Amino acid sequence: MRLVHTVAEVRREIAAWRANGESVGFVATMGNLHAGHLDLVAEAKAKTDRVVASIFVNPLQFGPNEDFDRYPRTLPDDCARLDPAGCDLVFAPSVDEMYPRGRSNIAQVSVPGISGLLEGEFRPGFFEGVATVVSILFHIVQPDFAMFGRKDYQQFMVIRRMVAELHMPLQVVGVATRREPDGLAMSSRNQYLNQSERPVAPGLFRALSAVAQRLRTGSRDFQALEDEAKKLLEHQGFKPQYLAIRDPDDLGAPRAGGRGWVLLVAAHLGRTRLIDNLEVAA
Ligand code: PAF
Predict the structure, then answer these.
(1) Looking at 37, 167, 235, 268, which residue is catalytic?
(2) For labeling, which of 40, 134, 186, 257 is most exposed (least CB within 10 Å)?
(3) The architecture CATH gives domain 188-281
(4) The CATH number, out of the four listed (1.20.210.10, 3.30.1330.30, 3.40.50.620, 3.40.50.1950), of the domain defined by the range 2-175
(5) Are 146 and 164 a contacting pair, CB within 8 Å?
(6) Hey, is 278 helix, strand or coil?
(7) Nearest atom of ligand 1 to the alpha carbon of 152
């Protein structure tokens, strides 16, 4: 596995693979890798000859009061995990390498509509930052497949729409959420949880599972289900921002006759903001 820091090196390496007729899979990350990220690498490896992972904490997708500065940066550990997982190339650029003209007044990608909902309401500019950096990375790597975790369900949908609407020549694959044994979705931000918060955190997934169960047994009063689940979370010490039952295809209100629902939640537990979701078939 090679570790490179410049766009020119990535292009050179990938051009040599392409000259041999090899296909390329891509996993975009912000580093601090856990088993969920390695699932993305495994999925890429199963589909393509070569796997590229990027590690870049993207300043464009963090709000002014968010955790850009304290986001864990663990490049040597990340490389030690990516190598045995079968990754061929790690691209870990600097901010200047990615944004050579600075971060303001540069070309940006936005995916309107869906980007303004849920996460977009609470993190203005977040999806523009994600779509822009992912688009830049796609232009650099030019993969055949790109793997994204379904843990970030809305992000996955935004990227899929961007790729479809901008006719980007690659396939976006959504990979199932990896969970801890107690149900907590794996996330780099879980390490912000302190000792008393960690045992409470799986309550988020339990709340989603309870709503899913009610949907499976025929309950269709979506507002009441959302309100009850939010109350349950508050009772456990969470501060929910949203808990929403949505159509899995466009994140709009659930449709009668739709293929099911996706339940999405964001909540603070102490200083840590956690998100999770659960897809439920009709
Ligand atoms: O999901 C993430 O880690 C980031 O949002 C991504 C897709 C790597 C873009 O910075």
Answers:
(1) 37
(2) 257
(3) 2-Layer Sandwich (3.30)
(4) 3.40.50.620
(5) no
(6) strand
(7) 1
Q: Among 203, 202, 227, which residue's Cα sits nearest to residue 214?
A: 227
Measured CA distances, 35 to 99, 177, 240 (Å): 29, 10, 26
Q: Parallel, antiparallel, or unpaired for β 145-149 and 2-4?
A: unpaired
Task: Give the mean pLDDT per block of 10 residues along the chain (282 residues).
Answer: 98 98 98 98 98 98 95 98 98 98 96 98 98 98 98 98 98 98 97 98 98 97 98 98 98 94 98 98 96
Domain ranges of the chain: 2-175, 188-281
Protein residue with least CA distance to atom 9, ligand 1: 130
* pLDDT score recorded for residue 47: 98
* Residue with CA at minimum distance from ligand 1 atom 6: 29
| Ligand 1 pocket residue status of 158, Cβ below 6 Å | no
pLDDT score at 197: 98
Nearest CA to ligand 1 atom 5: 130
